[in-house]
Design a protein that fits this description.
This protein is 58% helix and 6% strand. It is mainly alpha-helical.
Length: 357
Amino acid sequence: MKQENIEQLYKKWLSLQPLQAELQQKMDQQFMIDFNYNSNHLEGNTLTYGQTKLLLLFGKVKGEGLIRDFEEMKAHNVGLEMMKIEALDRKRPLSESFIRELNRTILAGDFYKVSSDGEYRYKIHTGVYKTRPNSVITPSGEQFDYASPEETPALMYDLITWYNTEEKAGNMSVIELSALFHYRYIRIHPFEDGNGRIARLLVNYILLRHGYPMIVIPSADRRYYLDALGKCDAATGKEPFNGVNATIEQTIAFVDFISFYVERKLTFALQLYRGEITEIIETNKKDIGTVNGTVNDTVSMRILNIIETKPGITVNEIVGLTGISRRTVIRRLNTLKSYNRIERIGSDKTGSWKIIK
């Protein structure tokens, strides 16, 4: 049902193209701020939403912040514009050289990092594949390794070849293709830094290339993002080669994750076109400082976003979509109702939710 709904929304969206210049500009500007802020915030950038907006719209710096954070935010926006140009050139296939250039661009040139033990500094060479192993420590304390430096060039060649072949064949939906590409790319982790940001840029490269509006993964949803990837890791196992060759069946959790944001963005875009909303905000409202009342925790905001996208959703469907316990979902819904943020119209099974603005 989810895929059918997305396809219907997508067809409506395509029928409205091209948008009026003023509306397109409004959407592009809001997306620029939200995407740059959230994708960098997911990786630890310290700039606030207000600082990001001031920097990208007016080129001004205000308040405290690391110089590199300001530099990378500006550079990431340059990378976003590069990606959009590349995506809209349908005659040009995706290439390793473009991905390397994208990495070099968003990281604003070579720089030094301090080792995790604080004992020494080492240089990050941007735009080139890693020369030292990279890994993460899982919540259980285990080391999870990505592809080795020696394997990376061949695996990246295979990944790009696979993508271009699969895109041309059209056997997958665009959402499946973008989610699977993201997951396979992350299991390689080809660069010493910037891999997550590149992965999210390339998801939007694939969506934009096929006429979908681009999406933002809010930094407030980081837990759900990592949980979805973690479920895919559990399905494929720890061996990098298996992860790099993951199947749709093994990555269904991440396909569902990306589907949620695509469906939500299509819904919001159509609502904006019809004048039902005045702007599309894809950032946690708490980050922007516009939450009314006291219901501003991440779980409640996620539930509100889901309800706004799918008013007819049931409690069980919210539980399945978010992975939050049924008890917590019910508690948050009751709290939202007590603060007059939502109301239920009709029965639990056949009724729908109403957002109270």
